[in-house]
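Need a sequence for this fold. Nothing fancy.
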């Protein structure tokens, strides 16, 4: 591998964490904020253009370092996307924060890899479910109608006329399906594991 010129290196300080890479790496995703920063244009015109989008950016000519007041942990994933062409979503960062950071850096959310898509979309799916639930509650539906809509129609406010099976069915299902639901379920699970053939 050949040597790169020192002018080809670029230092990005994101939220106090320094990242060093090459301008050619940042040019791999044209139209993004970092690709513009790595362009061959004059530094002043680039900084003026970048300042139009909300988000603090500062250039330190002495260190040849660009400072962004953004989330440093998410930026590691963003920079890795420039390097590898694969955008992964961190599991320890909430979806709206990751979405906001992608928007700031000018990266399309549809570039998230399939292995991380469910993690990334989890917050939106939860928001949509809550919106539907709030819409149903705001409509003034009674408890039975809401229960039927949510798939829990067996739960009724009047427990006197509930059959024996309807009352004990969820308990029995948990006993056989969820070993963490009760002590009896754990005991049953351990006995089955101990006596099952290996």
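Here you go.
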């Amino acid at each position: 591998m050949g040597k790169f010129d020192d002018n080809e290196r670029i230092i990005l300080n994101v939220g106090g964490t320094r990242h060093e890479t090459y301008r050619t790496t940042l040019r791999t995703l044209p139209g993004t904020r970092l690709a513009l920063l790595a362009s061959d244009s004059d530094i002043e015109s680039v900084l003026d253009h970048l300042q139009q989008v909300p988000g603090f950016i500062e250039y330190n000519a002495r260190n040849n370092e660009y400072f962004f007041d953004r989330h440093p942990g998410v930026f590691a994933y963003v920079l890795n996307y420039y390097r590898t062409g694969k955008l992964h979503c961190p599991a320890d960062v909430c979806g709206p924060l990751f979405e906001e950071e992608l928007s700031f850096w000018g990266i399309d959310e549809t570039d998230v890899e399939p292995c991380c898509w469910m993690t990334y979309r989890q917050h939106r799916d939860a928001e949509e479910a809550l919106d539907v639930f709030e819409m149903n509650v705001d409509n003034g539906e009674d408890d039975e109608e809401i229960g039927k809509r949510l798939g829990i129609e067996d739960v009724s406010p009047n427990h006197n006329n509930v059959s024996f099976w309807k009352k004990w069915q969820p308990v029995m299902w948990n006993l056989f399906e969820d070993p963490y639901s009760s002590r009896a379920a754990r005991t049953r699970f351990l006995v089955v594991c101990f006596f099952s053939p290996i």
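For context: The chain has a mean pLDDT of 78.
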